[in-house]
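Please decode residue identities from the backbone states below.
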């Protein structure tokens, strides 16, 4: 689990420093206008290692540790690294596309990459029982489908200061890169894959037809 601990360490160091240095946060967080107009593409990566506050950091890292340690043991260092990095980049690019006409949109946090790790875990272990907000015994496949639907609804409704686009983009990327690396899972976990990807495909079609439909939030963290 060396990689899990290394990623946790980077997030802790960068975030704790950012709590005391607003300039640092402003310099490295995700900002649509800075990325598209000023071509500050480094923000697509750096924003995934800083957080808004201690609760934001703690929740993300606890979620990452809970699923990441099992996945890294199961897959090994390099496959796990690929899943994490692809999910991270995909979540940021998807957010950039969704909010490309909203110059005021900004975000920070590792939740996009972590969503990819969680969804990869779900594809591997769809029948594992999960506890969500003190509700025990939820099958992982059901959590994945509900999580996808909530992310889509959150984008459409503008609910809360939550990076739904990063969650959705990272989660879908986690599924796709896992299937690309381990194609046998297409048959073994076909029901959960369909339950996650079909709503996303429908969402994407709507997004292409009506790009303004999912741009109600001006600022998310």
């Amino acid at each position: 689990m060396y990689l899990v601990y290394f990623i946790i360490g980077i997030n802790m160091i960068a975030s704790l420093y950012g709590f005391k240095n607003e300039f640092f946060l402003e310099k490295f967080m995700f900002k649509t206008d800075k990325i598209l107009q000023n071509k500050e593409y480094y923000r697509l990566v750096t924003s995934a290692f800083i957080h808004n506050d201690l609760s934001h950091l703690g929740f993300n890292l606890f979620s990452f540790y809970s699923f990441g340690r099992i996945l890294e043991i199961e897959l090994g260092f390099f496959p796990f690294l690929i899943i994490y990095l692809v999910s991270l980049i995909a979540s940021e690019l998807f957010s950039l596309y969704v909010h490309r006409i909203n110059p005021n949109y900004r975000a920070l946090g590792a939740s996009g990459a972590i969503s990819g790790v969680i969804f990869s875990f779900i594809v591997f272990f769809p029948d594992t029982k999960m506890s969500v907000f003190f509700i025990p015994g939820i099958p992982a496949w059901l959590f994945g489908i509900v999580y996808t639907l909530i992310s889509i609804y959150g984008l459409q409704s503008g609910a809360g200061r939550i990076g739904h686009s990063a969650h959705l983009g990272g989660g879908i990327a986690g599924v796709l890169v896992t299937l690309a690396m381990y194609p046998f899972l297409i048959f073994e976990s076909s029901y959960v894959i369909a339950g996650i990807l079909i709503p996303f495909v429908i969402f994407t079609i709507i997004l292409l037809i009506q790009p303004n439909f999912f741009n109600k939030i001006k600022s998310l963290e």
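Observation: The two ends are 28 Å apart (CA to CA).
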